[in-house]
Write a structure and sequence with these properties.
- The protein has 7 helices and 10 strands.
- The strands form 3 sheets. The protein has a 6-stranded antiparallel β-sheet with strand order 4-5-6-9-8-7.
- Strand 1 and strand 2 form a beta hairpin.
- With about 240 residues, it is α+β, with helices and mostly antiparallel strands.
- Helix 1 crosses helix 3.
- It is elongated and about 75 Å long.
- Pfam families: GntR, UTRA.
- Keywords: DNA-binding, Transcription, Transcription regulation.
- It comes from Candidatus Faecalibacterium intestinigallinarum.
- One of its GO terms (molecular function) is DNA-binding transcription factor activity.
Length: about 240
């Protein structure tokens, strides 16, 4: 295969576009090793300088990861999380081309802390429904989440939340739409139990996102705590 040196688009840009297309169509899947620079030179009839400029551009665009002494690899596609608004995990997965999944770890009642009660404006002695799930993308674990709900949402006890969208389930039952949230973000490190669920080593960096989630009227509806594998996510401001 050769590139066209008679058009205005530089050869390195043509090569970068060609390799990007091959990545997006799955010819080079995530985690796979790209051909060597010499092999790319021969395959596309271009110089090593052209190949390196194309690989540099794709590395800056986060399509590739270059590992000294090992080669060039297709980067894992990162989940993009916005800091404004509310986007359910299932919808986020679908937009990224992944099949969303969920496995319920625990669902039960617990006494709220003083902070929980104040944030959700709970009545005296009102309990919280706690739903803890492992979130999957194409069958692979990427996030642990704990959601806390007031009594209005106790119907979730009777719902099968495995491989289901929590927000879609709630909307079908109540008509409630979650539209905004305030978030607290920090980097934490996986403890033993978290590492077992997420399939990472103990101490692996996790992105902790604690949210107070509101509906379109501005009422605080539930609390969320998500622990995301940090190197699989990218935040957008």
């Amino acid at each position: 295969m050769t590139l066209d040196n008679t058009i205005s688009t530089p050869l390195f840009q043509q090569l970068a576009n060609t390799l990007r297309s091959a990545i997006e169509t799955g010819e080079y899947p995530a985690g796979s090793r790209l051909p060597t620079e010499n092999e790319l030179c021969q395959k596309y009839s271009v110089s090593r300088v052209t190949v390196r400029k194309a690989l540099d551009e794709l590395s800056r665009s986060e399509f590739l990861v270059r590992k000294p002494g090992k080669g060039t690899f297709v980067a894992e596609k990162k989940f993009q999380r916005g800091l404004s608004g509310v986007l359910g995990y299932s919808e986020m997965c679908r937009r990224m081309g992944y099949e969303p999944g969920a496995r319920t770890i625990r669902i039960g009642l617990e006494e709220p802390s003083d902070e929980d009660a104040a944030q959700l404006h709970l009545a005296k002695e009102e309990q919280l429904l706690v739903v803890e799930r492992l979130r999957l993308a194409d069958g692979n674990p990427v996030m642990l989440e704990v959601n806390k709900f007031p009594e209005k949402f106790f119907f979730l006890f009777n719902e099968d939340l495995n491989n289901a969208s929590l927000y879609e389930t709630i909307h079908k039952k109540t008509g409630i739409v979650f539209t905004r949230s305030s978030k607290l973000l920090e980097i934490v490190f996986a403890n033993y139990q978290e590492s077992r669920y997420l399939g990472v080593s103990k101490g692996h960096p996790l992105l902790s996102i604690k949210s107070i989630v509101q509906d379109d009227s501005g009422e605080n509806r539930h609390l969320s705590h998500q622990l995301c594998i940090a190197d699989k996510f990218k935040l957008m401001v």
